[in-house]
Amino acid sequence: MNWSRFINFLLIVGFFNAISFGIYDFWFRPKLFINKPQIKTVSKIADPPADPFSSTEMEYFRQLTLKYNTGQFEGALKYAEELLLKGDLSSGFGNWLRQQIPVLMTSLAWLKIQSGDCPEAQKILYRAVQRGAIPETKKALGVCLLGAKEWPEASTWLADFVKDRPQDLEGRLLFADSLESLGRFDEAVLNLDAASQFTDLTAEQKLNLSNKLTAMKVKAQEGLKQKSEFSRRFYVSYLEHEHEAYLPQIFETLESSTDEFSELLGLEPVNSPIEVILYSKEAFRSVIPGGPEWSEGMFDGRIRVPFHADMKRQNLSLLTTILRHELVHALLSIRSKRRSLPTWFDEGLAQLLACRLRECSGFRFGVSPGDFLSQKMLNEPFVTLTTIEAGMAYQQSLYLTRFLAKTQNEDVFKSMLRDLEPAGPITSDFLIRKAGYDSFEKARQSVAGAWVKKLVY
Ligand SMILES: [Zn+2]
After folding, report:
1. Which end of the chain is more exposed for a tag (fewer CB within 10 A), N or C?
2. What is the model's pTM?
3. Any domain includes 40
């Protein structure tokens, strides 16, 4: 597993975001095996080992494993269920086959999860539970329930999974994630701590876990002071004395901006709450270890924002901008089913929409704007760039989206986000074709031409 795919730190002039796809992503379908029937030896001496099943049943076995091993889980499940209905199986084979049903169902469910269809996966998983859940069934349920923000049930399944597989890193992380949402920070710390003791971690995983652990300990301390409140689509945690007075305005910003962005981008209604956590300035620094001093907000599956006295003096305008910026990331993440989008698109839209129809909506070139960045630099997480390049990448991402909005109109984004591929990465070429360009490189060249002439869009 490539850990770095999970945490992409994105820099922005005035903002800092971390988008973590760490939790419910596509790389951890369990490795399931249908055990080959055990070879029985008849006696110690001469006889060759015999298959435990009849030749007909060995053929069933071969057919089933062929389907299974070539990823035809739906076909394999159907086949197994049809065999069981036939009723003329030996008890040995029948029992063996019945034990495979939850394995087949869980594998099929993982396939659905990979294609972003958790509702369908969940139906299959609950059926698997009735037939005898295997550990991966529980993990898969945890993944889907966590995605649906059904934290109590998610944590129950994940607790069970961790009991079965205490050495599973992803399981520990998922469990800690559910505990965090439930405000059970101390237990989350214990799980991260257990995971950091694993002996097979890479250096990168170790560093990552140590950062997570540090952050969770701060959250545990902060959590004691935090209270939470729901609105229609948001679950906001805040510090009672510092933030409470501003909650109505914060909820209003979040709810009305969600309506505005959903309409503009043609998004489905948000049907599970988006988490927003307000921190003190100091605590926020600690929950993003390694983040730059000037960071202003982040989205890592939850919107995390520092909210302090300086911001209150600015009449909440800056807080509104940050909340709207991170909200765009959150909504795009839901739209893409948590797959990563090209960074220029994600960050460009976040900046554009944060200031849409507001006083901060202008665009200014720097004294020497420099060349337009390469396709590669604009596509990948900006953390791979130097600080100066990252600043340029943010500005040029905004310029790209402004160019599209002005040369066409804002509906271009709705078109770009329509009919996303059901699985796999979402590429710049895929998105830009919806805006009428042959390729992202062609579009980039047009935009670069306008950039060097300092045309303001
Ligand atoms: Zn951002």
Report:
1. N
2. 0.78
3. no
